[in-house]
Prior knowledge:
Elements: H1 4-7, H2 13-31, H3 44-59, H4 61-71, H5 76-84, H6 89-102, H7 106-115, H8 121-128, H9 135-151, H10 159-164, H11 172-177
Amino acid sequence: xxxxxxxxxxxxxxxxxxxxxxxxxxxxxxxxxxxxxxxxxxxxxxxxxxxxxxxxxxxxxxxxxxxxxxxxxxxxxxxxxxxxxxxxxxxxxxxxxxxxxxxxxxxxxxxxxxxxxxxxxxxxxxxxxxxxxxxxxxxxxxxxxxxxxxxxxxxxxxxxxxxxxxxxxxxxxxxxxxxxxx
Length: 182
């Protein structure tokens, strides 16, 4: 039996090697894709919901702004200007929800984020006195369920949120089967 290398003409070997190198580098890239937008709140469930808020806010901009104005006491002008400056809807939602839970205007939290947000929302929250596990953070998380109900958007609660808001969102069983509980 002849070795495979003897079957490939010698002039094609460098091309085959180059192709293998390219495929290997593409595989490495696919395994570790570059990171995109990451809220880094310190709570994986909240981070996932904020990604979904981005999708909702991009698609239903007016309804999203109305939500912030009506339920999070955000001035319409602030919401529209902040989004026009390139803020993601999830970031604005989180800023205004955080502001409401700590009793500050959304404008103050937006200013704090603009001042320094290199470490994400967890760091901004700590500077403002709210962090995962605190009562205020729990209130912030419960606000997602109310927003999602108003948006008629499905929501699967994490264990902590399910315990704090029984009857809201999906249960573990219904998350798999698609049945929504109320």
